[in-house]
Specification:
The protein is α/β, with parallel strands linked by helices. The protein has ten helices and 13 strands. A seven-stranded parallel sheet has the order 3-2-1-4-5-6-11, with helices on both faces. The protein has a two-stranded parallel sheet with strand order 7-10. Helix 1 packs across helix 7 and helix 8 packs across helix 10. The longest helix is centred in the middle third of the chain and has 18 residues. The termini are far apart.
Length: 314
């Protein structure tokens, strides 16, 4: 489906977006991205300058494209969400609205919205996609990122109902991998751990107990899953793209210390610090029934991420 197709990847310089671009280029697509703060890391990709919070920029980027992949977002890690929970909400609502409207007005055929499992909070039992809405809703979202993702999903469903635009909704696991944001202020958990493990100091300090469970999913697998679902399941019907395996932050820290050859390093826990919901268990049976499975084990993915960080850090 993608060979020769014109595709606009919103967020193409971000962690998941850059893997979407890489996959599309391998499939023979003609790719367009918009750059704002980060420069383009690609060759052979059409690059427009602009800000996706501007509606005209989104329309210009979507014009003439067959598909749009929405992997963009104004993001922050647990620290920024805790200290300033509304900081990213309005910008992300604006992004979602602009991109969906641009795709509809410009006659785009299919649209992929990359959501994530922040739409759920603590989940002692594995959650299925339908548990997010209606009578089966087990819980409200994890944080304001989850709230804006839920709203984005609702916008997708309404747009698909009232226009010819076909939309795939992918709820990725906790994404990590090369191209992640390693900022001390706004990084998510795996990127923050990679930075701490590689750069020191010791002992390694973790927020909270370290017993928090997440389904850590490599960004390349989320990208591949989004493209698969856009082709096979553009039905405005959310699908998890995750490993189905919950791993604790302590386990991730231990794996990273082993990767850098410092497995005997001490770990200390700041139990006064926030650590988010204690458990995220994701049911992936629907994903598998649609013919997709992630390929990258967490050990391999963490090693690749460490190598990327070492070669790209300032």
């Amino acid at each position: 489906m993608y060979s020769g197709a014109s595709v606009f990847v919103a967020g193409g310089t971000g962690m998941i977006g850059r893997h979407v671009v890489d996959e599309l280029l391998q499939l023979g697509a003609r790719v367009r991205i918009v750059v704002h703060r980060r420069p383009s890391p690609f060759r052979g990709v059409e690059t427009l300058a602009g800000d996706l919070r501007d509606a005209e920029t989104c329309r210009r980027a979507a014009r003439g494209c067959r598909f749009v992949i929405h992997a963009a977002g104004v993001t922050g890690g647990l620290k920024s969400l805790t200290l300033d929970p509304f900081a990213t909400f309005a910008d992300n609502v604006r992004l979602n609205t602009n991109l969906l409207e641009a795709a509809r007005i410009e006659g785009v055929e299919r649209f992929a919205f990359i959501s994530n499992t922040s739409v759920y909070r603590d989940t002692p039992e594995p959650v299925r996609e339908e548990d997010c809405w209606g009578d089966r809703q087990g819980a409200w979202e994890e944080n304001h990122t989850g709230a804006v993702k839920r709203l984005g999903e609702l916008q997708c469903r309404l747009t698909a109902r009232h226009s010819p635009l076909r939309i795939a909704i992918v709820r990725g696991g906790n994404g990590y991998g090369p191209g992640d944001n390693f900022s001390a202020e706004t990084s998510h958990v795996v990127a923050a751990l990679v930075r701490k493990v590689v750069d020191g100091p010791r002992p390694l300090a973790l927020w909270g107990s370290g017993e928090t469970l997440r389904d850590f999913t490599h960004a390349r697998d989320i990208a591949r899953g989004a493209l698969h679902m856009l082709e096979q399941h553009a039905e405005s019907d959310p699908v998890h793209v995750a490993t189905g395996r919950s791993v604790s932050v302590n386990e991730v820290a231990g794996l990273l210390l082993r990767i850098v050859g410092d497995e005997k390093a001490a770990i200390v826990h700041d139990i006064s610090a926030p650590e988010g919901p204690r458990a995220k268990r994701i049911d992936v049976s629907k994903m598998k029934s649609l013919g997709f499975e992630p390929r990258i084990p967490i050990e391999e993915g963490l090693r690749e991420t460490v190598e990327w960080y070492r070669s790209h850090r300032p």
